[in-house]
Amino acid sequence: MRQRKSGGLGHKTAISEAFLSFRxxxxxxxxxxRFEELLEFLDRHRTAxxxxxxxxxxxxxxxxxxxxxxxxGILKKRIAAARKAGFRAGINFLSTIGHCDEYLHLALHGPxxxxxxxxxxxxxxxxxxxxxNLREYVRQSYAMMAQAxxxxxxxxxxxxxxxxxxxxxxxxxxxxxxxxxxxxGRSFTREELRAAFDAGTPAEKLALRRAWIAHNARxxxxxxxxxxxxxxxxxxxxxxxxMTGEYFYDGYDFTTRADVLAGPPKTPVKWRPGGGSGKRSxxxxxxxxxxxxxxxxxxxxxxxxxxxxxxxxxxxxxxxxGPEHPAxxxxxxxxxxPLRTTANGRILAPPRHHLPLRIYPHSSKKFQVSCxxxxxxxxx
Length: 380
Prior knowledge:
- By secondary structure, the protein is α/β, with parallel strands linked by helices.
- The protein has a single domain (20-377), classed as TIM Barrel.
- Helices cover 38% and strands 14% of the residues.
- The protein has helices at 26-29, 32-44, 65-84, 132-146, 174-184, 190-196, 202-234, 254-262, 286-299, 328-339, 372-377, and strands at residues 20-24, 51-55, 88-93, 114-116, 122-127, 152-155, 239-244, 270-273, 310-311, 314-317, 342-347, 359-362.
- Strands 1, 2, 3, 6, 7, 8, 9, 10, 11 and 12 form a 10-stranded mixed beta sheet that branches. A two-stranded antiparallel ribbon has the order 4-5.
- It is globular, with a radius of gyration of 21 Å.
């Protein structure tokens, strides 16, 4: 692994074990011809890429198991070819429980419990991590990906409880309400729980909200434990990586989750703090993004040697002509020195496949987040 030193003012600590990693879109690795073009492209820019992670999907809901099985078979060949070409290679599992509702005609359907929001909204492409049928789906799908022999598997940031639009502030399905009742010794319907969050004194509201956040954290930890057991039973050397954001609603306990993913083999865990990047129109947004990465970095205590944290921005290869995003160049050196680790990018398919690949930076959307705990501190 390469050694790169930080040259920024005020930085006395060298960046060690840093590398450049690109996430590769399905439309670039699945067709044989496009994959060959991708390898040629990366070879021409070898100093700009050390590692590739192949996306499992171009869409954000959970995929049917037969699609996962077919792609896992192709990925086994792609990973072997990328490693032969001199790149570290692994998988970015995009949708474990699902991000949001889109392209639902291509999504998983069947007896799976959807995420239910506090207001009763039900997701169509995202499923409850406590549902037994979904857990069996996760076990089978991660086993298929582990058998593709990746060096690592990234778990994308759909592993969260909130923000699975249209379902927010979940999950209030019957299973989750029962588990919460077992933990606090009191049963709630969804409507009763919603009312209870805003009832009583500030101290009483905070106590209930803290208990709910702890329940959310346990829900995620149980699913992460299942993934770790599944993958490391097949190959204990496969590193698991967790992509996180400012998900205070889930407990923000990154150290515990990393320990769960390391499992009994104590395999080094990868880790990517998230939070968005700057925009072409407002590059000043680099500053709040850096603060988010910093908060995430402080929450992940003493990463184990070999762990990596991939920071934004996320450069994207595109066939479109256009000016470079001016915030991209300063973002990588700004975010990476404090984290002393990896720059992460995405290479997705160009809109017209006959156009040559070119690297243009990608600007992600910035979302406003209201704090569940801060709301609890407001007097009723």
